Fold each of these.
Amino acid sequence: MNTRSAVICGGGGFIGGHLAADLLSKGIKVRVVDVKPTSEWYQVHPEAENIVADMNLRDAAFAAVKGSDTVYNLACNMGGMGFIETNKGLCMISVLINTHLLMGAREYGAKRFFYASSACVYNGDKQQESKIETFLKEEDAYPAMPEDGYGWEKLFSERMCRHFREDFKVPTRVARFHNVYGPFGTWEGGREKAPAAICRKVIEAKLSGKHEIEIWGDGQQTRSFMYITDCLKGIHKITDSETWHEPINLGSAEGVTINQLVDLAEDIGGIKLKRNYNLNAPKGVNGRNSDNTLINKVFGWEPDTRLRDGLEKTYKWIYQEYMEKYGGKVAVQKPAPIGAHVREKATAGAR
Ligand code: GDC
């Protein structure tokens, strides 16, 4: 598939901003659409056509899609566990975005439609053990028991992609992202995921001189984290594939406990902290890792950036952002707002 023009829906967000830069560097004509005002986009690329619109609405979604070969749907209301556990209804409304974009892709004959799904579609029963070896295979999404709210929306939308492909010949491709991190992502405000949150907390401990850190859960829960450049490589392979169209894992298989993630961040920050475990905080599943058998078989590749390397770059970027924003003072972090009033914050998926 040779894309000449692309629209990135949710391109004001973390992954979308990086994807726009990447496509522009390849000489592709790029339209970026996001509901947030451009002042809140993580990256704004002046070479792109930048549009502020709410793709929950049919007309805006159709206008977004019109005239582009490839549609990337990264738009949804999302965040880390602290957000999705307390905003289930809001997360489910994103079903409108994918529905309208798929209908638009059908109407205007898009050559490709990429949908950013998530590891949150996997059956919760298979993620009960805090083990690094909790590798999830693509078939583990069924029988369906995904993450409540957010995961159900993702699973439904995946399914809709399948039926639009089968019934209406919209050439859909679906990746299941496993916790993506890197520079130009959310690091405060309540939607941040563990890698950015832990980096920020280490930085705050250093700045405040209070050498303690709050960790959600008991720190034994396991995850794998995918660096943004791997995510981009995978998006291209999956989108451009002429043969593979089923949902496929896009994640790192380097599993760690959250305690090990904290070890790495402490090491990068050059500090050791007293750990306070908050067992009442949002925790999500006990164990989750990406089984990469299929992606290796289909594409002869899997995400391979070491967590230590990616986290170091992320830490440095967050440190700079922190200093720029707060000038070396420690900010009081507020929890994410709950409810419909955050609709305008809908942003790119960054699973
Ligand atoms: O938020 P998250 O990165 O999402 O959390 C990973 C684990 O880290 C959780 O068990 C959480 O309790 C723990 N944790 C410890 N301290 C903290 O300060 C903290 N902040 C955060 N955020 N977590 C902390 C994600 C979803 C995404 C997406 C991906 C797909 O779930 O939130 O939207 O779909 O999964 O892989 P996580 O990995 O549970």
Amino acid sequence: NFADVDLLVVGAGFYGATIAERVANELQKNVLLIDRRNHIGGNAYSEFDSETGIEVHRYGAHLFHTPNELVWNYLNQFTAFTDYKHRVYSTHRDQVYSMPINLGTISQFFNRRLSPDQARALIADQAAEMAGRHPANMEEKAISLIGRPLYEAFIRGYTAKQWQTDPRDLPEHIITRLPVRYTFDNRYFNDKYEGLPVDGYTAIFERMLKHSRIQIALGVDFFSLKSTLPAGLPIIYTGPIDRYFDYSEGELGWRTIDFEKETLNTGDFQGMAVMNYADETIPYTRILEFRHFNPERSYQTEKTVVVREYSRSAKRVDEPYYPIDTRRDKEIFLRYRERAEAEANVHFGGRLGTYRYLDMHQAIGAALKAFDSRIVPHFTEGRAIGGER
Ligand code: FAD
Ligand code: UDP
């Protein structure tokens, strides 16, 4: 019975939860929030492992970071953050290096002490094959940034494992996410704000969604409900956009990850939270050890939880995690976007709904923007929630 529902939100990840929270608190409208999974939180969901008590992010390591003060202040209404700062190391041929590539990585790799200027000159020399050329793909972009030897050691194998796509067919923006530094700064992110939620990720969602006007239905698939919805009910859809149109314009390429979880009888397996494996001879891309995300907690010291990540291209039954975004994907996506513009009652949002590689802060930021530009005008002026403007 949808008689009291003012807005249907499909997907209880950060995009859907932010919209639901704003609509209930700011507009006093009734929201029905559904998710086909049996939990809220989307891919940011985490749980405390029953055997060890260690918080495990079920869908891979989630590090919160943002340059956006508005998003930071918004989320701080629902959680405090620890002062965790992410650092990553990468194993290549049985040696451990700092990742992202910094002066330490470069000096260690070339086995000599280098000043920042010397390192810049060395890399410029090694990137000479790209001089004066505009990088047309991920491989060329990486070589222009770090030269061929470092690319082949740390990027090519890892990227091939992670994307199962030739780096020459990948968009260059994937690699620009990773900074290259001519200092010894080994922080993974450059953003002003960074930390992990003190009580875990799921608690954020519980607090955001605790409102008498928000009704949550879990284990409910939108497509088994669609034909029963009242005509004109406004919908926020954060599922895969190709699925919404029944794949009629073709299937968009996604990458999924198989997470292999293991509890080990040691208090410390690898000494830090994330170890990347650069070599193609090792089938997984990285190992996560969750206890290290929360050094402030007094976890037991007899056991530890590790997760190995294996990446592969997604089939329809798999969880779609990362848009691959090849040229073909871009063309297909444009056709879906045109069709989405004809859906006046449906607003498409989030990582899956817009086929975009969004971090959590970007998903929240985009939802806050859509609230102002689409949802408020809908409820106050009667304008369409979706469709073309
Ligand atoms: P999601 O969280 O994916 O939520 C969408 C929800 O819609 C899902 O719960 C899904 O079950 C539901 N849904 C889909 N179809 C239907 C349907 N038909 N009916 C009902 N419900 C449906 N971001 C960071 O900022 N830092 C990180 O370190 C980070 N690491 C990541 C690691 C991995 C492995 C992955 C996959 C993502 C990572 N992210 C990270 C990104 C982060 O997960 C996303 O930014 C965030 O989840 C986006 O929120 P969303 O609401 O758009 O999508
Ligand atoms: N990357 C790499 N080697 C590494 C880490 C990252 O080649 O050790 C590349 C890889 O293509 C990856 C991209 O850089 O997809 C962005 O890295 P990030 O850690 O942001 O990727 P995510 O884990 O979020 O997919």
